[in-house]
Amino acid sequence: MNSTTSINRRECLATVAALAGGLALPRSVVADSTTELLQGKAEHVISIWLGGGMGQIDTFDPKRKGDPKKNIAGSYYEAIDTAVPGVRLCEHLKTLAPLMDRVTAVRTVNHEVIDEHAAATNRMHTGRAISGTVTYPSLGSLVAHERGAAVDGAPPYVLIGYPNVTRGPGFLGARDGYLYLTDTSQGPAGLSRADGITPARQSRRESFLSVLQRNAKTTDDSRLIDYEAAIAQSLKLSGPEFTQVFQLDKEPADLRTRYGGEFGQRCLLSRRLVERGVRFTEVSHNLNFLNGAGWDVHNEGILQQHKLIQELDTAVAALITDLEEKRLLDKTLIVITTEFGRPPEFDSAGGRGHQGSAFTCVLAGGGLSHRGAWGETDELSKKIVANPVSVPDFFATIFASLAIDYHKNLYDNDRPVPITDMGQPIAELFA
Fold first, then answer.
1. How far apart are the C-alpha atoms of 158 and 367, rounded to whole Å?
2. CA atoms within a 13 Å half-sphere pointing along the CA-CB vector of 425
């Protein structure tokens, strides 16, 4: 046995002994339970997902302008000033620029997943690497599990996008899953009654179901209990009291215009869901990758990137001002995430590759002490210079804003699973 192996073995044994004896360890090993928890006052989350990998250098962390034709690394667009001195944005975020005092672009989010979209999407939804033994719950399911719906008769978690295991409840079970829809004009297909199912016929069906449930043997199987709870919730939500939330035509025409196209209408629906009592809503941008690439702007895909940025700018600015006008902004945390960022260098056709070592996610509203931007990258937004924020740290910040204990353990059967993988919130946002 060489000396290095011996030292590593001794360090491992010392760590195990300390854990067994309850000795204090650094936060990187175990959360410090004596530290006072940060607690915000947010009640809801609207999480906007930018599939493909939003380039931070072309949006919320602009640097000197580059030139793809001359192979000079840098931003693709010019930068503009914002309401926060010293914080600049891409020129296509001009509607958000005056609102950046309600926003914090967290410019130093990082993880090690670079070249695989599915793995990075999983990381940004669950906060963890893919595991062969554990299916971890998504952020939405974690919030649903901890806080539930804000009012009775509303689902805790709605996905405006396609169903996917990365958005699911994992080991938490079906009770903390999502209600999903893709078409804002129709609402969730799962809540719609088939043609010919009159209220009287529906009532008879529910009576038959009730008889079957009463006559069934009792069970302590958590999976069956969760599925029964999900069925009960679905029946409750299929009535007109909840489904009217999807009637966007009830909104003023000028407001709908202010939100913009289909993505904007999804953001408007998310505001209506907040009013109805939904705790967590995820909104997918560019749902069907209408530009062919989404935010994954390799090669010629970057030529239409400005349209995505403009669409994001219009909808998010409208969402912030709409929530503020309705006195809901301090109660609603808006989160913008993506699977990774883009490097400053251009590829052979003028597009960009993937970069997980430094990229931007955005927080707005939620009662936080916003500062326009947090964290600093180098002159090309390639390396982190100050205040790195891991994905668990970003999750912990969201949990803290909702007054969720970010140090607690959840349990996969008898196995303890830290809710944020030892993440620590950005304390300065709670000052």
1. 22
2. 27
- Asked if 143 and 404 touch (Cβ cutoff 8 Å), the reply is yes
CA dist 407 and 396 (Å) reads 8
Q: Which tokens in the block code for residue 421?
A: 């993988």
Q: Which residues contact 169 (CB under 8 A, 6 or more apart)?
A: 137, 138, 141, 144, 145, 175, 176, 177
Give bridge partners of residue 418 from the DSSP assignment.
409
Q: What is the tens place of the pLDDT at every residue in 347-405? A: 999 999 999 999 999 999 999 999 999 999 999 999 999 999 999 999 999 999 999 99
E strand intervals along 11-146: 44-50, 79-81, 88-90, 103-110
- Angle in degrees, CA 304, 308, 310, rounded to 5: 110
Hey, which residues does 364 pair with through a beta bridge? 103, 334
Q: Which domains are seen in the chain, by residue range?
A: 36-190+245-430 (3.40.720.10), 193-237 (no CATH)
Beta strands in 161-234 (DSSP E): 179-181
pLDDT in tens, 221-251: 666 666 666 666 555 565 567 888 999 999 9
**pLDDT surpassing 50 at residue 15:** no
* Residue 109 near residue 359 (C-beta atoms within 8 A): yes
